[in-house]
Structure formats: C-alpha cells, structure tokens
Amino acid sequence: MKKIMAAIIVLTLCLSFNHNVFAEEETLTIEVVHDSAPIPFKDIYVTLNNFKSYMSYKAISDIDSPQYLLQELCSTDADGFRKCADRYVVAVGRGVGGQIGDCIDLFLSNGQVIYCVIGDYKDNKHTDAANFTGKNGCCSEFIVDANLLRKDLKSNGDIGCGYHGWDSPVLFIRRYNRNYLTDNGGSEA
Fold it and tell me: For position 100, what pLDDT does the model report?
C-alpha cells in the first residue's frame, strides 16, 4: 500500500511540474508557471561532448536504496527509456551533486533541453577528476530497459543519435531543489 501511495504522490508531482520556466540568473532561482514559489536551482557546466550513453536499470539491485525505490516508481516508454512521468531517468557523476530523485535538465549547446531526474550516480572511478563526465566523455547516462531499447540506439551505443536535436553536446546541467522521492512527503506519505 505504501508503494502505491508513493507512486501516486510521485506521479502527481511529476505531472504538476511545468517545464515553462523563466530563469533569473542573478538569484539562481526559476519561476514556475502556475506555482506560487520559485524553485532554486544550480547550473553545473561540463566539458562539451556529444556522447550520451545508457545503462540497464537492472544494474540497480540494492532493494533498500533510493535508486531502487525510484525505479519502482518509474515506467518504461516505447523506446525502452525509464521515465518518471515525462522526465528521463539518468545516472550522472557525483560532481553534479544533489540526491537521487532530484530534477535536472540537460541544456544542449543547440538550445535543446532534455528533462531528467537523477536515478543513479556514476562510480567516481569511471569519471574524470571533477566527477562530472565518464571516461567516454558522457555526463548523462540514460537508464533503460535494455531488452526494450530501440535496436538502432542499442547498436550505436549513443542514444543522442536517435532523436532530433539530441546529437549536440551538453553545455550545462541545471539541478533543481525539487526531489520526487522527498517533496510533499514523498515515499514516507
């Protein structure tokens, strides 16, 4: 019953989060349309690289971890991506900071924005000295159901090649002070 209630709360939060935001760089907050309070954020600039890798959600096996709880609340879309409502679930380097469940946006150098949530962290030994990007230059590893992942994405290894506008380097990651697991009671409600 707790998992069902947590799923309802998470989906409600996911659906209520509006992506039409207006940045106020000086105050490091954004104003969310139809929401009474601004949501603070932090921009993390990364080394430019086009590559966007993927990992299987089945690699998350610790049933007592927040990563596992978030996966329990996610679904798989038609292309094999794990999503929390309309946000892609990704693994990032620990240099991005935050917690599992935090909302992040990937701002690409071509102006495209990919809406995500932190679903896991890359191991520090697999990232650069700042713990932002992987050895392959990737700063965002999309969490997928490998059995359902589109064949063209699986064979290429770079999911950025499969979507219009995604084949562009990540310029920066915006991490919001909003978490699907803890906001409004999260999984404890």
Answer: 95
User: What is the phi-psi region of residue 44: left when phi exceeds 0, alpha when psi lies from -120 to 50, beta otherwise?
Assistant: beta
Cα–Cα distance measured from residue 94 to residue 181, given in angstroms and rounded to the nearest whole number = 18
Low-confidence ranges of the chain (pLDDT < 70): 1-37, 124, 127-133, 137, 184-189
State which residues form the domain around 59. 2-188
pLDDT at residue number 6: 44
What is the spatial distance between Cα 153 and Cα 45, in angstroms, rounded to a whole number? 26
How big is the CA angle at 58 (ends 174 and 140), to the nearest 5 degrees?
20
User: Helix, strand or coil for residue 36?
Assistant: coil
What six digits make up the tokens of 38? 């601004």
Q: Other C-beta atoms within 10 Å of 50: how many?
A: 16
Indicate the burial class of 168 (C-beta count within 10 angstroms; 0-12, 13-18, 19 or more): middle
pTM reported for the whole predicted model = 0.76
Number of domains in the chain: 1
Distance CA 80, CA 63 (A): 22
* Secondary structure class of 6 (helix, strand, coil): helix
